[in-house]
Amino acid sequence: MLFQNLRDTIQAYKARDPAARSGVEVFILYPGVHATINHRLAHWLWRKRLRFLGRLVSQWSRFWTGVEIHPGATIGRRLVIDHGMGIVIGETAEIGDDVLIYQGVTLGGTGKHQGKRHPTIGNNVLIGAGAKVLGPFTVGDNARVAAGAVVLEAIPSGSTAVGVPARVVRIADKPVDFVSDVEQIDVTDPISAELAALRAELDRIEQRCKAQKCREEETTR
After folding, report:
1. Residue ranges of the domains in the chain?
2. Which CATH architecture has domain 2-188?
3. Which of 4, 162, 182, 191 reaches 20 to 30 Å from 207, CA-CA?
4. Rounded to whole angstroms, how far apart are CA atoms 27 and 33?
5. DSSP-H helix ranges across the chain
6. How many CB atoms lie within 10 A of CB 110?
7. 177-199 pLDDT, tens per residue?
8. What is the pTM of this model?
9. Is the peptide bond before 190 cis (omega within 30 degrees of 0)?
């Protein structure tokens, strides 16, 4: 089972990273794979209540890979961490299957309360570079968090979060597979779209006013 999971993870990297040339290269040279393997061990120690050893493994992994995953966090199958430097995943974070995370991402908490305080990430979710997802809410299946977004509330399945603080763009009547598309920056900003629509309406009003003014001038001649 362990080797099957590792094989599936390596295949996921090859499918989503055009720079990956072979499975051997991915296994030996990719820090995201090393971070995932180390976390499996740290999480196993954590569940066995060997908390110090679990933290020791996670901190060694942080030093070696640049990826900080608390040993209490739960991650699913075929997680792909692209580059990985600066990623932080908190203690009560939960990550589903087939998730793609870019560098600089934080899955963090807000405040010092106990219990669930980090986000739950669904299946087939893409989280772009530098995004911050903060709080004990859910990012639904097939969702996308755009690069640099700061997410402070739940994201519905099949939606995109963009901006600071993040706004949700619902994808309606359209199949979404953001992880396979590996597209993290081509995102429509709903505010920009609304401003463009308002500008177009103002242009139409201006044209009507000019036409009306011309007719009035002709009438007075």
Report:
1. 2-188, 189-221
2. 3 Solenoid (2.160)
3. 191
4. 6
5. 2-16, 23-29, 31-47, 51-65, 178-181, 190-220
6. 11
7. 555 555 555 555 556 666 677 77
8. 0.75
9. no
